[in-house]
Backbone:
């Protein structure tokens, strides 16, 4: 008897890369587009809100994908991408967010983009809302705290579903919908620090988003019976800092804070553990019977981003020290971190895949993962500029090996799209020097540079990963 477990990626595994409109397109007001919350966060998610947007900031031109997408798609095609995750900037379609008629120029742009991808057999995965709420909906309505946004979102979703139904099969509703707890302006257009915002206001906004997301699933399935529509969460899992049972309970509490969002999407109703949380925090929500019916429209798959894991502790002192870190999480003494202090944990990805699959029994899609690092452009052997990014290759290799392990564990994984396959503007810090790409973009933090593209060493490595369906991973 041969007891060797086969470790391989399924034949139809969807390899590719992932991007977001506000971090790549630029052309901030071109062809009728309106401002978004991303334009109002020039220094990134945790920076000051600037309304109206500042005169100069990197996302305004980003990497000029709006004009250079043909060149970039060609390079993705050369790497053999099966899929490319993009987001539609809602404000290209409805510039203020509340118009009745869509902006044809915006619609046409994404038509052209999808057609270009098709030339290289690259399937789009489209996020409806990736941290780019039309700023008009913040100024005129107070962002997602206002129930009216459900209707505006429904209108937007139905316009793009009808328009692209023959071009797009995979859809995601809200990017990292759970991160709104830590960055409320970025996620829901609500101003103020998370701890200062009234929790009833915040959870009411979250409820509106969850309802809008389920509504999009409903109308999406009506318009496109073949479509696969998923939710998207930030998937970094919690570990207990010690085996102290109190840490264990704290881990569950923190995990639930995040998983609540996916639970609603998958189960079609609020999980019972939230009752106690709402009661103890005096959170009063307006949830109508109609909302409850809408929430029953559940997703086809669960997608998530994975960059790191976190530790939970019941020790108050340690928690206070951790404040200000990413998600105010306690450091794990067993892990190394990136130049931006994000803890590298490839095995945590296998754990997350197993955790989510055990919980949901739905196909999973890793729609973001990667290493943000400073790169140095050098002359390569053939005289062309390149980056010798062995550190990135190692990071991605180690994570993909763990994805393969999870598949061998029995987890159903649809695909993997690495974050920022071409260098883009960072979301959390608004910088350019934090680079994720297989393709280097000549632009610096002062906004200077030619915007020229150069292949890094990882370009050919990832091409080989896709060509061999992961067989070259070590
Ligand atoms: C995710 C976001 O949080 O992480 C992306 O969905 C973001 O928009 C990515 O870019 C990486 O974060 P950062 O801050 O390095 O750009």
Residues:
């Amino acid at each position: 008897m041969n007891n060797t477990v086969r470790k391989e990626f399924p034949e139809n595994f969807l390899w590719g890369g992932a991007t977001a409109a506000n971090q790549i397109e630029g052309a901030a007001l071109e062809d009728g587009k309106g401002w978004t919350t991303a334009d109002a966060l020039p220094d990134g998610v945790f920076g000051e809100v600037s309304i109206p947007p500042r005169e100069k900031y990197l996302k305004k031109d980003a990497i000029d994908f709006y004009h250079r997408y043909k060149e970039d798609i060609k390079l993705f095609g050369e790497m053999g991408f099966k899929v490319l995750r993009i987001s539609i900037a809602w404000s290209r379609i409805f510039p203020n967010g509340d118009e009745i008629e869509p902006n044809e120029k915006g619609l046409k742009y994404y038509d052209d983009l999808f057609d270009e991808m098709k030339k290289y057999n690259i399937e789009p995965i489209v996020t409806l809302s990736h941290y780019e709420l039309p700023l008009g909906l913040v100024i005129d309505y107070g962002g997602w705290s206002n129930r009216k946004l459900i209707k505006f979102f429904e209108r937007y979703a139905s316009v793009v579903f009808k328009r692209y139904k023959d071009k797009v099969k995979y859809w995601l509703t809200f990017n990292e919908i759970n991160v709104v707890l830590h960055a409320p302006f970025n996620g829901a257009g609500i101003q103020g620090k998370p701890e200062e915002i009234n929790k009833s206001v915040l959870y009411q906004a979250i409820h509106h988003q969850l309802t809008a997301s389920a509504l999009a699933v409903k109308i999406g399935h009506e318009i496109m019976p073949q479509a696969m529509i998923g939710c998207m969460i930030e998937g970094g899992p919690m570990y207990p800092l010690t085996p102290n049972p109190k840490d264990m309970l704290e881990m569950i509490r923190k995990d639930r804070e995040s998983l609540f969002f996916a639970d609603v999407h998958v189960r079609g109703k609020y999980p019972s553990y939230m009752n106690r949380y709402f009661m103890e925090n005096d959170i009063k929500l307006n949830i109508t019977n109609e909302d409850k019916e809408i929430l029953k429209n559940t997703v086809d798959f669960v997608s998530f981003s994975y960059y790191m894991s976190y530790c939970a502790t019941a020790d108050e002192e340690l928690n206070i020290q951790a404040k200000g870190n990413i998600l105010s999480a306690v450091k794990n003494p067993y892990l190394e971190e990136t130049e931006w202090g994000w803890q590298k944990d490839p095995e945590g990805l296998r754990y997350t895949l197993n955790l989510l699959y055990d919980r949901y029994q739905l196909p999973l899609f890793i729609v973001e993962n990667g290493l943000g690092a400073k790169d140095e452009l050098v002359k390569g052997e053939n005289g062309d500029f390149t980056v010798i990014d062995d550190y990135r290759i190692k990071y991605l290799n180690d994570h993909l090996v763990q994805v393969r392990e999870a598949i061998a564990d029995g987890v159903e994984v649809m695909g993997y799209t690495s974050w920022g396959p071409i260098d883009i503007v960072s979301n959390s810090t608004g910088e350019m020097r934090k680079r994720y790409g297989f393709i280097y973009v000549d632009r610096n933090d002062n906004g200077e540079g030619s915007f020229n593209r150069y292949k890094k060493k990882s370009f050919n490595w990832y091409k080989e990963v896709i060509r061999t369906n992961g067989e070259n991973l070590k």
